[in-house]
């Protein structure tokens, strides 16, 4: 007999073990994954056993049994029972688990909990037995031993399993001690390292896991498996070994599901027509959605995209499917020093930079299928008039303060210099090329006015310190109004935890007047006499951009923006933007006292990192918006993955290995497989026509289970928990796959008339599930949804999200032409992408010509969270201003000391975030340089 296998194939372990034990000589022929062995099959999986020339066995368990029977017929039904248990219960959870843990080092807890339940059953069954069957060592032992090997031995071993499952331990050790098993391990697992199974594992389709664990309730009772008759005793267990079972469908759920299926369509709302301009409507849920306005001077990376635009896009698409009256506004944030700097760098005017990059941003978001109702920009006359009007309203009501600040002024350029326009000698370590805000050599933060030999970066002249008058928003005076508003919306609205925590910490620390003017040219001009040479600070200006962009969309903008009782505003943004949206902008709106609509819901993400580090434009690390298409992968696949790993409760990472895994397992094997299989079967066997569906009890149960997922999908979406809703979609697809698998319509179709009719019911129900999936998928993967709907010939009234699964494709409906939806991503392609987007390694800090300094930053101490560094830098600068202000006013020493202490704390946090020694950053380390 010949055994064809790829290298390191886990299933080959059981086959080689049993063959050795049975004394069967197998000729092992190593093949590459995808290589063809069987002439009449276009694709098959390894291992393949050629029992005699031209006759093949493709199921590893059947092949194991076949070999074992060669030695002696195994008549015990227990053997079949265990073989089936392995393939139908264990594999669907064990394989995805192994793929995750060996493939990307990330075990999935949900799967693990399920595996543990199965191990517990197995342990119970082994009580008083040496092997699984009473008749002794059989194929069942080899099948289970082979499958469990990477979980119970080697690098990825499940910690503590021996003490939890003592019977398994005895059995497994007995198996491992068999010379046959030892030989199999030597042949399959290179150097005993189970990591050598990775390549083969990743190249196989992953068996379909059980329905999503959302629907699996933790309970002390275990559903008794009919076949196994396993009875698990209630025992005190460690927390992670909780026993779980699927919550049984109730009678009420069943009745509701059947009613909805039969009669629900008439109750479904009709899909909305999208007619511009969209304005609030009486008696409707009017939702105003904003996405943070990305800076125009940068190409957005995938973190920016998931942090604001893509998340807001998914939510607004969902709102439309629910029939809410929603308007989604975004655009580019165009003013500020960064734009001026970029203009100098590219030898263009700031306006030219804005035009160039606004076009680039627009193209990127178009490629990603971001469907804003209007994508505008902040450099418009509407921005000027609205921002100035708001300013006057604040000014006239006494919410604007005046104060002076010391700043460097370049007489030659006739301008005050922002920090990034100054360089000089570091006052702390005497490094000559220090920047205006930080020294690249000692890494410490500096105030530009403290630099020795300061130079204007633009003309190299020496600037002078000049006191300049600025305008401040009186946040302390506005605090009571803000607090009242927050008390209300924290209760009634949807605020992500980080949005609440960041906002509360700002308020807890006490609000301070916030400077809203800058000595710059590129910005909205301050209209107040004596200040007209200044512009508004970008963070005062940018959120007002939401209003002016709406004003560019429709001259009836006030219907959205001066309608606080009838409009629900959702802000989508990354965590660093929170204080500006939850404190400063609401204070601005409330202080203007002009009936402005103020934020009710704030949906802030954490950060998305790239692989093990961060996105970096300067080093070219990570995928930037304009590069995603260079991979040749469709935008929908990026959308899917970004939403799958959306950083909701903590920072997450874009990982190419995981990208491959999610594409090949979730999209290709689960979703794509289910939809294509159903549609193709209906086309090939029923002329593509939906058949009469005579529902059996199990079908009704399926409807009820789908309704559970659907309702959880809606509940998650309503709270903008976008990451979980995508899992509900995958769970519905999994339910559909299992339904097809257990009913086998392809067998039924060849049987009696009754069987054929059952086959028609099964596939027609499955195709209706595919139709439901096409709608639920729309917010996430709009193009794929459209493709599925073209193939299904979906009636347009299907396009609503309703709380119950209704039959939208009735008997007689004819579908279109099916074709596969997703492509497999090969591991070699992923390696290519990894190289393509790796960028340059983190540079050593810049030093004097020829001099090398030690890297004390990110490269040395692990990944740096860029945005956190930016946020802390801003905090340090802010606090620095407070300290300086107090000192210049000769405030009480104790007051100054307390503010200095806060500043030092912030500096330490910043140093930590930058991967530096916090003590050194605040001058606690050994001093080398001498302060002048
Ligand atoms: N790594 C990241 N992960 C998630 N979200 C992120 C990440 N980095 C930034 N962001 C968010 O992206 C948007 C846009 O950021 P940008 O710096 O271009 O613009 C601004 O912050 C302001 N122009 C916004 C004015 S309203 C933002 O929400 C970041 O938090």
Task: Give a verbal description of the structure.
By secondary structure, the chain is of the alpha/beta class. Among the domains are: 213 residues, Glutathione S-transferase Yfyf (Class Pi), Chain A, domain 2, CATH 1.20.1050.130; 215 residues, 3-Layer(aba) Sandwich (Rossmann fold), CATH 3.40.50; 146 residues, Isoleucyl-tRNA Synthetase, Domain 1, CATH 1.10.730; 48 residues, Helix Hairpins (Orthogonal Bundle), CATH 1.10.287. The protein has 31 helices and 22 strands. The strands form seven sheets. The protein has a five-stranded parallel sheet with strand order 9-8-7-19-20, with helices on both faces. Strand 3 and strand 4 form a beta hairpin. The C terminus is likely disordered. The ligand Nc1ncnc2c1ncn2[C@@H]1O[C@H](COP(=O)(O)OC(=O)[C@@H](N)CCS)[C@@H](O)[C@H]1O binds next to helix 11, helix 17 and strand 19. It catalyses: tRNA(Met) + L-methionine + ATP = L-methionyl-tRNA(Met) + AMP + diphosphate. This is Methionine--tRNA ligase, cytoplasmic. GO terms for molecular function: ATP binding; methionine-tRNA ligase activity; tRNA binding. It is found in: Cytoplasm. Belongs to the class-I aminoacyl-tRNA synthetase family.
């Amino acid at each position: 007999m010949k055994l064809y296998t790829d290298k390191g194939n886990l299933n080959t372990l059981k086959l080689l073990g049993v063959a050795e034990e049975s004394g069967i000589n197998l000729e092992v022929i190593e093949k590459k994954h995808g290589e063809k062995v069987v002439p009449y099959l276009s694709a098959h999986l390894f291992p393949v056993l050629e029992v005699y020339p031209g006759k093949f066995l493709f199921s590893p368990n059947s092949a194991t049994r076949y070999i074992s029977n060669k030695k002696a017929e195994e008549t015990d039904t227990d053997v079949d029972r265990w073989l089936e248990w392995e393939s139908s219960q264990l594999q669907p959870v064990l394989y995805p688990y192994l793929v995750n843990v060996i493939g990307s080092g990330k075990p999935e807890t949900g799967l693990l909990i399920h595996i543990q339940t199965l191990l517990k059953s197995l342990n119970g069954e082994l009580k008083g037995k040496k092997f699984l069957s009473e008749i002794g060592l059989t194929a069942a032992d080899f099948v289970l031993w082979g499958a469990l090997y990477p979980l119970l031995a080697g690098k990825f071993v499940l910690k503590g399993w021996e003490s939890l499952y003592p019977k398994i331990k005895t059995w497994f050790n007995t198996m491992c001690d068999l010379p046959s098993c030892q030989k199999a391990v030597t042949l399959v697992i290179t150097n005993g390292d189970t990591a050598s199974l990775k390549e083969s594992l990743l190249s196989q389709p992953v068996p379909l896991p059980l329905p999503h664990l959302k629907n699996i309730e933790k309970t002390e009772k275990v559903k008794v498996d009919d076949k196994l008759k396993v009875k698990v005793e209630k025992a005190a267990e460690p927390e992670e070994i909780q026993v779980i079972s699927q919550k049984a469908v109730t009678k009420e759920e069943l009745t509701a599901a059947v009613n909805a299926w039969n009669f629900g369509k008439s109750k479904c709302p009709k899909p909305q027509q999208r007619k511009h301009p969209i304005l609030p409507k009486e008696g409707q849920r009017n939702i105003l959605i904003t996405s943070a306005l990305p800076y125009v001077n940068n190409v957005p990376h995938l973190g920016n995209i998931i942090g604001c635009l893509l998340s807001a896009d998914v939510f607004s698409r969902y709102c439309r499917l629910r029939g809410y009256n929603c308007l989604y506004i975004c655009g580019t944030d165009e003013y500020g020093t960064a734009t001026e700097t970029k203009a100098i760098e590219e030898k263009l005017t700031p306006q030219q930079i804005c035009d160039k990059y606004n076009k680039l941003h627009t193209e990127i978001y178009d490629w990603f299928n971001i469907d804003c109702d209007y994508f505008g920009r902040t450099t418009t006359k509407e921005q000027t008039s609205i921002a100035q009007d708001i300013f006057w309203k604040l000014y006239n009501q006494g919410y604007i303060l005046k104060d002076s600040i010391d700043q460097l002024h370049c007489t030659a350029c006739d301008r005050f210099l922002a920090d990034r326009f100054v360089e000089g000698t570091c006052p702390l370590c005497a490094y000559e090329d220090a920047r205006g805000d930080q020294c690249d050599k000692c890494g410490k933060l500096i105030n530009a006015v403290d630099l020795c030999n300061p130079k204007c970066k633009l003309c190299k002249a020496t600037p002078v310190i000049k006191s300049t008058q600025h305008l401040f928003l009186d946040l302390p005076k506005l605090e009571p109004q803000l607090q009242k508003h927050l008390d209300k919306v924290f209760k009634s609205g949807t605020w992500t935890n980080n949005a609440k925590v960041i906002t509360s910490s700002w308020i807890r620390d006490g609000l301070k007047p916030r400077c809203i003017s800058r000595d710059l040219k590129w910005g909205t001009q301050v209209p107040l006499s004596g200040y007209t040479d200044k512009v508004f600070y970008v963070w005062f200006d940018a959120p007002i951009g939401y209003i002016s962009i709406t004003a560019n969309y429709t001259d009836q903008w006030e219907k959205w923006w001066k309608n606080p009782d009838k409009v629900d505003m959702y802000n989508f943004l990354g965590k660093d933007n929170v204080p500006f949206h939850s404190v400063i902008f609401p204070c601005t709106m409330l202080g203007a006292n002009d009936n402005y609509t103020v934020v009710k819901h704030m949906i802030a993400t954490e950060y998305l990192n790239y692989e093990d580090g961060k996105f970096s434009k300067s080093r070219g690390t990570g995928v930037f918006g304009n590069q995603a298409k260079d991979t040749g992968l469709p935008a929908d696949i990026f959308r899917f993955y970004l939403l799958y790993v959306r950083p909701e409760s903590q920072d997450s990472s874009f990982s190419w290995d995981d990208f491959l895994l999610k594409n090949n397992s979730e999209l290709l094997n689960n979703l794509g497989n289910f939809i294509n299989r159903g549609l193709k079967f209906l086309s090939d066997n029923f002329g593509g026509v939906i058949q009469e569906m005579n529902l059996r009890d199990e079908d009704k149960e399926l409807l009820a289970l789908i309704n559970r997922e659907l309702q959880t999908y809606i509940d998650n979406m309503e709270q903008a928990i976008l990451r979980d809703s995508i899992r509900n979609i995958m769970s519905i697809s999994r339910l559909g796959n299992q339904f097809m698998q257990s009913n086998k319509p392809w067998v039924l179709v060849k049987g009696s008339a009754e069987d054929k009719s059952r086959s028609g019911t099964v596939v027609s129900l499955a195709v209706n599930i595919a139709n439901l999936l096409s709608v639920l998928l729309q917010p996430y993967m709009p193009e794929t949804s459209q493709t599925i709907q073209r193939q299904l010939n979906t009636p347009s009234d299907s396009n609503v999200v309703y709380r119950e699964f209704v039959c939208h494709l009735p008997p007689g409906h004819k579908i279109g032409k099916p074709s596969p939806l997703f492509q497999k991503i090969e591991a070699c392609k992923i390696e290519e992408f990894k190289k393509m987007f790796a960028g340059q390694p983190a540079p050593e800090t810049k030093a004097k010509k020829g001099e090398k300094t030690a890297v004390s930053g990110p490269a040395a101490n692990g990944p740096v969270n860029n945005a956190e560094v930016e946020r802390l830098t801003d905090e340090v600068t802010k606090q620095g201003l407070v300290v300086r202000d107090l000192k210049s006013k000769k405030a009480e020493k104790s007051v100054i000391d307390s503010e200095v202490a806060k500043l030092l704390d912030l500096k330490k946090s910043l140093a930590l975030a930058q991967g530096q020694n916090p003590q050194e950053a605040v001058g606690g380390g050994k001093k080398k340089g001498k302060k002048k």
